[in-house]
Amino acid sequence: MIALPIVGVSAADLTLRSAELSPEQSVARVVGGADALVKSSYMDTAVYQSPDGTNYAPVGGYKDYNGSSRPSGELPSVASALPAGAQVLKDSSGYAKVRTTHGLLDTDLRELDTHSPLAAGLITLDRGRLPERAGEVIATKAFLKNSGYKVGSSVTPRGATSPYTVVGAYEVPSALVRDEIIAPPGTLLEPLGRALKASGAREVRGQDTYLVKVGGDGFTWNMVQAANTKGLIVVSRAVALDPPADSEVPLYRQEPKERFQNGETSTTETAILATVVGLAMLEICLLAGPAFAVGARRSRRQLGLVGANGGDRRHIRSIVLSGGLVIGAVAAVTGTVVGVALTVGLRPVLEEKIGNRFGGFDFRPLELGAIALLAVVTGLLSAIVPAITASRQTVLASLTGRRGVRRANRVLPVIGLLAVAGGAAIALYGTTSGMGATVVAGGSALAELGVVALTPVLVGLFGRLGRWLPLSPRLALRDAVRNRGRTAPAVAAVLAAVAGTVAVATYEHSRDIQNRHEYVADLPHGTGVLEARESDAYKDVPALRESLTKHLPVSLRVDVERLAVGDPSCDTYSTEPGCGRAEIITPKDQRCPLDGDAGARAAFTEEQMKGLRQDWRCRSTRHGIQRPVVVADEKLLTALAVTDPGSVSALKDGRAVSFDKRNVKDGKLTLRLVTDPQAAESSREKDGELPGEDRVLTVHQAPDTAESWGVELILPPAAAKAAGLTTVPYGSYFTLDGTLRTEQRQKLAGEIDRMGVDASLRIEEGYQGKDSLGLLALTVFAGLVTIGAAGIATGLAQADAEADLKTLAAVGAPPRVRRTLSGFQCGVVALMGVVLGSAAGILPAVGLRLTQRRELERLYTYGLDHGYTSSVDPLPYVPISVPWETLGGLLVVVPLGAALLAALVTRSSGALARRAAG
Fold first, then answer.
1. DSSP letter at 123?
2. Helix, strand or coil for residue 518?
3. pLDDT in tens, 382-436
4. CA distance readout (Å), 230 to 46, 76, 244
5. pTM of this prediction?
6. What is the 3-state secondary structure (H, E, C) of 746-799?
């Protein structure tokens, strides 16, 4: 019990420390064998950077920076930023989809001369060889695993005219899960870009970084600052190993260093960690304490002989405490050794799980020693109560086996009652004040400790139920009550474990109900949509539709198209030449005044903003805007469950249907065709009107009660054609005839993979609760702790009652009596602990939920007062619900299982022996 936590903590310490790389190791994985890595900041101005190159900002800050003009991505100033004679290695990277045995895989494409000494350390070759000529690539082990390929296979990026042969497998030490392939310079990205451009698809745009070796003292901080003046960012080995003082970093003089720091352990996190460690030690002590008591009880005759030969109580306590000290020391050594050995043996598995290769094993003797000392202290603390109890036994009682009469401690229950009242008050104060969940958690922990202190009294109260029980359970209950010294710690251990489980279960169950209430469906239940995710896949949409009808039980399929302005393969908001888009233009007098920039909103007072937020022009729709304009006929209304007769008639007559009345004025709606996206972006930044050609459409406005499911405008094909608009296939809405089976979904997914199309299939199936695997694990853990603690208490009870059991056997009692009594003793302890733990676990969950409710209501009120929230928005719903299924399993299954297990493992008969006199 003591060694197992030490195994986990020591293994975690060694794993985390080994995963932390030294500055030399970290920079080597970035710059390889070079002195520095140079890359563009993609800002058209000088920049300041942090010494490690992870943070940067334009000179003067972002406040005065205008990022409308961007460099092309080339780095013409790299050569001018380097000293004469510097060696430079270009590292280009891009992104594309690669055809695999399963379909398409998002893959990083990279061009790098892997034979160069400057690239040493960037990758680790696992098998095969490095690429030497055009048509050869190496791939990461993660890519080969996910794609189904192996060394020697041929891979083809989508759009490429010829395949590439995989000649080797490698890994990136700091990104083991990366899907990536590397080719010699000029053999992958440029040919693929030309092929994609020729086919009308989007080109692959690479990003270039440069590995630089300058010799001498390396790339110094002064050289880094000189490169910053040209808009370049540098990761330097020399700077990483000998960073400048904060006063020498212009970025930290311009903006506080704290702004760029994150991941620091806060005081609250430290307090929570200390609380968790303290409660864990308490749990171990509560479990291990009765185990020491069993040993002391079985050794009472030897301890009595010590007293008979002149030993006093101090000697008795020292003997028992020494046993705890020895066991703690053995657990410390064993746990630490096993934890270290497991980490060393499971290093590859741990590295794969973390996604990062260790720089080497980083043993911290002081930390491992502190963890081992924790085990020793825990063993010593666990033996304190048994040592005091054993020292109070008289010599005669120890030698004869008599337990004597012990008075109950009257101080401990008072302390426990005060702790419960104080903890509950603190938790209640945390729910009503602004101090938050930390205070609630602290108060709940204090109250739980108070319940632990009250356990002996509560166990005594359980004894009053014995009058209504049959003989065997009544004997077991009364035995537990009479011997509270061994019963109470075991019940407290069960209480602590069950309380944590019940708290988490109640909190998660309540959150699940809240999520179900807040769930917003994307479509009517049973309706789905299949759409191509990429704009350049519009030619593959007809094949997608046929696959949909072939593999799914479709009762209605509605094919929809989208508007195309310029190159139909462009993304909607692409600023590339030849691209464009169609946008719905809201009349100026029907635009929400709050939708402008921050300056426009600042012109209103809070009271005016509050009033405007209730204005119909400023109300947000429930589903937002997912698809502004779709081209379809009236059957789409059936799929979207829109039953408005006027909307159906309008689509049949060739008129468009609008679901947002802000866009319609006098029955007209304006579509603006933006053919110059760069000019449109510039105009948008200045809050001006978008340039473009308008198409004015006659539309029917659907009633406010009609749910559009994220569609603003349905344009019938005839109206699109009459307006001179170009449309291309986009996808299909559909409804199902019956229930969709997982086999059907898998067949469709496989067909789409074989087609090599990146498509999205969504079917509205209602709210789907989260996986309860974590909650199940907690319940199993609580059950194991319950069985373990109850088993320890049962063992101690058997040690106390061994003479009585032998007498029963001697007078002819059936063998099952021993088993039955043992089972009920274990079950009684388990049941008491589970009942008390279930009651104690409700408090923190209720406190945290009340805190969340108060915080959400505060935010809602603040939004109403300042005009950020509309009065039509629903009030926050934060329910508190008890998970009765989990409680039922803990209250019934766990005690029953503990009782049956104790009965099964108990011997039905013991060896007869002479009873001690007296």
1. B
2. helix
3. 777 777 777 777 766 667 665 555 555 677 778 888 888 888 888 777 777 666 6
4. 6, 10, 21
5. 0.65
6. HHHHHHHHHHCCCEEEEECCCCCCCCCHHHHHHHHHHHHHHHHHHHHHHHHHHH
